[in-house]
Amino acid sequence: MLLQRIFTTDFFFSILRITAPILFATLGAVIGEKAGISNIGLEGIMMISALFGSLTAYWTGSWAAGVLLALIVGVIVSLLMGFFSFNLKTDIILTGVAVNMIGSGGTLFLVKVITQVTEGTALASTTSLITKSVQVPSVNIPLLKEIPILGDILSGHSVLTYLAFLLVYLTWVMLYKTPLGLNIRSVGENPNAAASVGVSVLRVKYIAIGLSGAMAGLGGAYMSMYYAMGWSQDMVAGRGFIALAAQAMGAGEPLGSMLAALVFGLAQALGIKVSSLGADSNLVSPIPYLVTILGLVVFALVGAAAPGSGTPPPRFRPPR
Amino acid sequence: MNKKQSLLFSLVRGTAAILIALLVTTLLIFICADAPDGASLGAAISAKLTQTGGALHQLLIGPAFRSNGSISAKNLSDILAAMIPTIFTGLATCVMFSANQFNLGAEGGIMLGAFVGALGAIYLRLPAGILPVVCVLIAAAAVGAMMLIPAVLKAKLGVSEMVNSLMLNYVVMYFIKYLLNTHLADKSKGQVQSYPFQADAAIPQLVDNGSKLSWGFIVALVFVVLTALFMYRTRWGYAIRMIGINQDFAMYSGMKVGGIVILSQVLGGVLAGMGGGIEMLGRYTAFSWSALPGYGWTGITVAILAGNNPAFVPFAAFFMAYLDKGCNLMSTYSGIPAQLIDIIQALIFLFFAAEQFLSRYRQKLVVRNTQAELKSKAAQTEGSVK
Fold this sequence. Notes:
heterodimer, A: about 325 residues, about 0% strand, B: about 375 residues, mainly alpha, ABC transporter involved in vitamin B12 uptake, BtuC, about 70% helix
């Protein structure tokens, strides 16, 4: 049976493994968008964080230090984006494009400089630097792992995978149960009204974009220190962009966006599985991107069919 | 501010943006220059400084002049040839951004255009003079049709054209890789590539020195003029710019916003596709791209530098091609990785697009201007009183 060969416990395990980095970035997109910031630089931030995370893990010999630095780098880059966008009034989307440029070419420059790989030798990467000892460890959850099928699917993931799903809840709490969340939402909905009741719009925006960058930083760490062993060129491969789509499909809410991210994870896991069964990988690889387009269309159609229940279309303000 | 001052301000601002980017570049080069082992601090710094100077010389002067000071014709024609695809993606981005359509599909568009053009060059049987023209036209039409996807979805359903166009880039790339690996592969070659183009399909070269500076360059310049005329002298161009400035106003004044949204993106696609076809037939003899070429992103930088005005696109494209050539020379002669160009590009880009960058200086200009005006008015009234 083909279906039995596809839908194994390994398969469901891999969905969670594949979803986690998209989920980190999606939460970054959710927090940003709640504050009215379209952070399309998530892709670039993930690349930069992935690089510095893996290098730090190699130098210090500690995965935790790598993850922490990836997070810090994510925050720094996003705050710089904030400076250009909020203070110098560069359009936030263009700021994101610039960060993505640095993420794709600038990181390769840095790798070549740092690892002293010269032009002409095979593609520069840090794949030789990350070994089992500095990989983000997997944990078996005591009681859960004993349960027959669920245990195989849910237990044995990396610390960061559990963190990603935990952060969905924490993000929801932050957005809806804390004063900070209230400020972020009010700044996103109506900055003038927020300012009129004494909220420092600039400060709240900086906090929101910083948190958004922190999430992308964790996603980057996940990519280079668990999903793959080390950094390589273009390794994030559009996950930061898919996250924007997941945010839009999830109507900007943490839980809904997580479900959308899981759909993309499922699509990609299915693609990998099908290509391992002999299908052409070039036919299978575009599936998540196609699902993204279809998902956005379906979401828009459903939103249009049920006026009032749907949310307004995503707020992507193009530059003037 | 009067027109002259406004121009002066843009000049000062642009120069400042480029200078800041170059300053950071110098710093980066200085950091990556090697110092001899065991040298004292002073010696190490001076060794690094010499290297930085050499690298900067390659980056800034190298593309135009030979080491003996004469102008390097080969390098210059290389630069002009490299401008061909980025002029087209720059124009495409100008048109789409002018309408406030943040479509980032020029990247996938130029790859699809190149691929479709290549298919025509391999399989179409047409007379010599007509073949390349038809190839470029079908390339343009194919990408125009591709852009209908994000355009119609945006106009009818309000789906973000940005996310859709980004996703389409990946879909296009994998689709082309699939076809190239299976049905269209020339199995007799060691690397993955298509069958060779028919000799008639090649776009003739302007100069025959290996720079691949083809007649496509002239076509690109013609399209600069055509696009500029279209944007500033036709009602369609006016409508595109109008919905970019104020979509609500355009809608309430009776413009069909949906149609213009679609028009701008399809036009962008046509331009990008044409650039892809011309680049492929002017430079290569078989299709072998296995990844997105990056011209779309450079096109965005070009459009930003040109302030979304098609007339300035060739200058911006020249500037980026010059820097790119400089980075390549630098990496050959001094071992600084050529990807430095991406960091320079991002920095220039950020400062150019920053509305508030040097706003104090602008303010000063306005104040000075107003004071001068007031003074002359006061002098006039005084004169008339007397």
